[in-house]
Design goal:
There is one protein chain. The chain is mainly β. The protein has one domain: Beta Barrel (Porin), CATH 2.40.160.40. It is built from four helices and 17 strands. The strands form three sheets. Strands 1-2-3-5-6-7-8-11-12-15-16-17 form a twelve-stranded antiparallel β-barrel. The chain has a two-stranded antiparallel ribbon with strand order 9-10. Strands 13-14 form a two-stranded antiparallel sheet. The relative contact order is 0.19. The N terminus is likely disordered.
Length: 361
């Protein structure tokens, strides 16, 4: 089966996760917000683990333009929640890539999106969201494990805070080294199993989210622009993916990621005074979990149709949410209130150039 470019494989996930990152904080504690960037990282590391540069088409292979439509699954059921709040968004993802050879390359991508329904998370009607600019340097399939035939890939990602969310979080930049393992099998038109690991370190000006202006007019002290929501210092992402080529033009893929997002630590919270017994009680003594860590699940599945090298269609769903509901009970990682159904139309530039050259001959 003709392998898809790494940028094409995340177009559906990209808008779905971008939409979800403004929803997920509702499931966090009342005092802290999770590291939204951790959820978006899951899509990237899953893709990096699946890169299979088996054919060398052009140095710019992987450059693509994608048009994406995403709708929340709960939009189809007015009785799902007490208040009906449908969400439908459209997005445009632009991804550029340059490959020095079959192994080494670099890429950049950015996503623009707009909610068509009444948005709850923007200040203006019809406002366009701009995602963070992501840069990457990759070493694909640089070593194959003997006997096991497992291919290894690695890379370094750089996150530039071009989104309003990241700027409100006072993000300066993020660094994301990653490692991917993959194994292919001759099943139908190709079966690929992969594992990816990524570590992201975020650098912030402040440890908490900030308001643009003081909440009290005339007072500009830092205490009055602090939103009280802690930023994520770093995250770990462990992801697993499977893709199956059913025919030369039809494929199925699914991925799962478990995310550990570590917030900046709060000070002076090692223990608390109990007035009854007159002693300090440590949190570990009463089984209080580490409040500096947030856990997220990301699950996605999709069908991809590739009628020619220049064009492909992805239809699937993605679910990204905390492992627990607001009432602290566990929720399904496959389907919950954050599930998004998405359709992506992808234009591969290298494939388009190849098709045009072929038609001229």
């Amino acid at each position: 089966m003709r392998p898809k470019s790494p940028n094409q494989r995340i177009t559906v996930t990209a808008l779905a996760l971008m939409t979800l990152t403004v929803i997920v904080p509702a499931g966090a504690s009342a005092q802290e917000a999770p590291a939204e960037s951790a959820i978006q990282d899951a899509a990237d590391v899953t893709t990096e683990a699946k890169v299979e540069p088996e054919e060398w088409r052009a140095p710019y292979a992987g450059t693509s333009i994608s048009y994406i439509n995403a709708v929340s699954a709960r939009s189809f059921n007015k009785n799902y929640e007490p208040t009906y709040n449908p969400e439908y968004s459209m997005g445009l993802q632009i991804a550029a890539a340059w490959n020095f050879n079959k192994m080494l390359g670099m890429n950049a991508s950015i996503l623009l999106a707009r909610e068509i329904t009444n948005a709850d998370y923007t200040t203006k009607r019809g406002e366009i969201w701009v995602d963070d600019l992501k840069l990457g340097f990759n070493a694909r399939n640089f070593w194959t494990v003997p006997v096991l035939e497992i291919k290894t890939s690695a890379g370094l990602g750089i996150i530039a805070p071009t989104s309003k969310t990241s700027r409100a979080n006072t993000l300066i930049m993020g660094l994301k080294p990653n490692l991917g393992l993959s194994r292919s099998f001759e099943v139908l038109s190709g079966l690929n199993l992969s594992y990816g690991f990524a570590f992201t370190k975020n650098f912030h000006e402040y440890t908490t989210r900030q308001f643009e202006e003081s909440r009290i007019p005339g007072i500009s002290a830092d205490a009055f622009i602090n939103a009280g929501l802690r930023n994520g210092s770093y995250n770990f992402v462990n992801s697993f993916a499977v893709s199956l080529g059913i025919t030369d033009w039809l494929s199925f893929s699914a991925n799962y990621a478990l995310i550990h997002a570590f917030l900046y630590e709060q000070k002076n919270l090692d223990g608390f005074e109990d007035e009854v017994i007159g002693a300090t009680i440590e949190r570990s003594d009463i089984g209080v979990p580490d409040e500096n860590v947030r856990y997220f699940n990301v699950f996605g599945a999709r069908l991809s149709v590739t009628p020619n090298p220049a064009f492909s269609i992805d239809l699937g769903f993605d679910t990204a949410a905390p492992t627990r509901k607001p009432d602290s009970t566990y929720q399904s990682p496959i389907f919950n209130r954050n599930t998004v159904i998405a359709l992506g139309l992808n234009l591969d530039i290298a494939g388009l150039v190849s098709e045009l050259k072929g038609s001229e001959e």
